[in-house]
Amino acid sequence: MKNKSVLITGANKSIGFETARQLGLLGYKIWLGSRDKERGQAAVDKLTGWGINAHLVIIDVTKTESIEEAVQQVLKEDGKLDILINNAGISGAQPVAPSAQSISDIMAVYDTNVFGVIRVTQAFIPLLKAAQEARVIMIGSGLGSLTWVADPSHPYSQVQAMGYTSSKTAVNAITVAFAKELTAYGISVNAVDPGYTATDFNGHSGPRTVTEAAAGIVWLADQAPGETTAGFYFDQNRAPW
C-alpha cells in the first residue's frame, strides 16, 4: 500500500473519476474534488465500494475561500499532498467563430481553466513542499498546442472554440512557469493531453475511452521519472507545444 495521496479537482465524473479509480487501485489515497456535494459523495461511495481509500473534498476552483477550505482539510488530516491533478475545466461556447464569441463567455472559461489552475496550485504549494518528490499534473488539451492548431492538415485546426483552445495554451505556459520555480523543491510539474475522449464535455463524441485518457495521467503521476518536468505529454510521449 502506497503512503501517498492525490487530490484531483473536478473528479466526480468522466476522466477525473477514472483517474481517481486507477490511482486508487494502485494504492493511492484519493482526495476527490467536486463542487457538488451530492455528486461528489456518490463518486466517493463508488470508489470506496471498490476498496479504494477515497475522501470527498468540496472545492470550487473559481472561489478562493473554497480552495482554502480544501487546503485546510488535507492539511489537518495528512499534513502534506503528494500529487495535485488540476482536472476541473469547462468548455465554453463552441463551435463559434472567434469574432462571435462573447467576452463574458471567454472570461468564464479562463476563470476555471486558467485562473482556477493558478489558484489551486498556489494554494497547495506548501503541502506539496511538505511531501517528498511531489508532482503537479495539469490536464491540458491537444487543442492548446499551437503546433497542432496552426497546421491546416491537423484535425484540431478545424475546431472553432477560441476561449477553450487559448485557455489550454495558457495552461501549457503556466505548467512551464511553475515547473521552473518548483524544481528547486523536487516538485515536478507537467501537462497532459487526454486526447479526444467520449465524455459529457463533448456529448460523448470522442473516439477514446476514459480508461485510455486516464492512462497517460496515471503514468505521469505514478511511473514517469521524478526528473520529468516542464513537459506536455500524450500517451507517455512528448507532445508539441
Automatic annotation (TrEMBL):
InterPro entries: CBR1-like, NAD(P)-bd_dom_sf, Sc_DH/Rdtase_CS, SDR_fam. The keyword 4Fe-4S does not apply. The keyword NADP applies. Keywords: NADP, Oxidoreductase. Signal peptide: none annotated. Belongs to the short-chain dehydrogenases/reductases (SDR) family. PANTHER family: (+)-NEOMENTHOL DEHYDROGENASE, SHORT-CHAIN DEHYDROGENASE_REDUCTASE. This is SDR family oxidoreductase. The lineage of its organism: Bacteria, Pseudomonadati, Pseudomonadota, Gammaproteobacteria, Enterobacterales.
